[in-house]
Amino acid sequence: MRQQEIQLPRKLTNQLLHLAQISPDREICGLIGSKNGVPNTCYPIENVDPHPEHRFLLDARQQIAAMSQMRNQGEELFAVYHSHPTAPAIPSAADLEQAAYPEALYLIISLNTKGILEMRGFKISGQQAAEITLTLSEE
């Protein structure tokens, strides 16, 4: 049975939205680690795509370092996040193609709104995306 709703801590959500806001012209990206299924740590990773204004590519060395840190802290990969500076918070064709972690949540933050940031979550497997409802928790 698939989980249809995921709780994100308000502090972590605010951190992700802030990272997107301070880089409005390029997609930000990174990983989120969790302990016991609760997301708790944000690992920002440099976007090394040649066209960072509308695509993202995690820096391989930083990604490996983040995964190593997660393992050392007893965390598991919970989510992969990135922003869309000028597009809605839905997976692009490239996002669907490049999704490599079917068990992870994919968080997309859109800056393509009038004053209000939008963040949506998806499970992506076999180039198919299923939206997951996100709710805030005070953890």
Provide a descriptive summary of the structure in words.
- With 139 residues, this protein is α/β, with parallel strands linked by helices.
- The protein has one domain (5-137): Cytidine Deaminase, domain 2 (3-Layer(aba) Sandwich).
- It has helices at residues 10-21, 60-72, 93-98, and strands at residues 5-9, 29-35, 38-45, 76-84, 105-110, 118-125, 128-137.
- The chain has a seven-stranded mixed beta sheet with strand order 1-7-6-5-4-2-3, with helices on both faces.
- The longest helix has 13 residues, at 60-72.
Summarize the structure.
The chain has 139 residues and is an alpha/beta fold. It is 22% helix and 38% strand.
Cα end-to-end separation: 25 Å
Tally the helices: what do you get? 3
Summed over residues and divided by their number, the pLDDT gives a mean of 93
Radius of gyration: 14 Å
DSSP, total strands: 7
Can you give the helix content as a percent range? Answer: 10-25%
CATH-defined fold name: Cytidine Deaminase, domain 2
β-sheet strand percentage: 35-45%
Dominant shape:
globular
Number of domains: 1
Give the structural class.
alpha/beta
What order do the helices and strands follow?
A: EHEEHEHEEE
Uncertain segments of ≥5 residues (pLDDT<50)?
Answer: none
The CATH class assignment is Alpha Beta
CATH architectural group = 3-Layer(aba) Sandwich
Report strand order across the widest sheet.
Answer: 1-7-6-5-4-2-3
Main sheet? 7 strands, mixed
| CATH homologous superfamily identity | Cytidine Deaminase, domain 2
